[in-house]
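Action item from last meeting closed. Structure (145 res):
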């Protein structure tokens, strides 16, 4: 009977020990399963984040290409406008030069006309002073003799 009791105690202890080892083993398996699940979830989250970043990079590259194309078109328009403005500036300068030359010529001609009219008036006066009658075909600036 003592043998049975001792055997029962030993069996009980062995059972408790076995249950403890099984519980520890189950706990380790649960921890490993949880760690594996966390790693899987983190991996999926990383993959989703990578896909989001890749998509964002693709969209940004496309936008960059559109902006570059628009920049090139705008630069071409700016170059054309600059060329046109330079051409117009040159033409304007040429016209100002022509106008200035024409005004200078007009001033010179006006001076010559005034000089000639004074000269004619002096000559007429000299003819009249000499007692002669001048020809009336001389035309003055206003168109009358």
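Sequence:
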């Amino acid at each position: 009977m003592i043998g049975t009791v001792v055997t029962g105690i030993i069996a009980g202890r062995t059972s408790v020990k076995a249950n403890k080892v099984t519980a520890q083993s189950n706990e380790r398996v649960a921890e490993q399963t949880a760690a594996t699940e966390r790693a899987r979830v983190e991996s999926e989250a990383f993959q989703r984040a990578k896909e989001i970043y890749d998509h964002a990079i693709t969209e940004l590259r496309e936008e960059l290409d559109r902006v570059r194309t628009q920049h090139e078109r705008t630069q071409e328009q700016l170059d054309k406008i600059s060329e046109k403005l330079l051409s117009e500036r040159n033409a304007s300068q040429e016209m100002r030069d022509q106008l200035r030359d024409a005004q200078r010529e007009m001033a010179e001609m006006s001076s010559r006309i005034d000089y000639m009219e004074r000269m004619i008036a002096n000559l007429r006066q000299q003819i009249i002073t000499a007692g002669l009658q001048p020809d009336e075909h001389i035309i003055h600036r206003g168109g009358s003799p």
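Note appended to the action item: The helical segments are 2-129.
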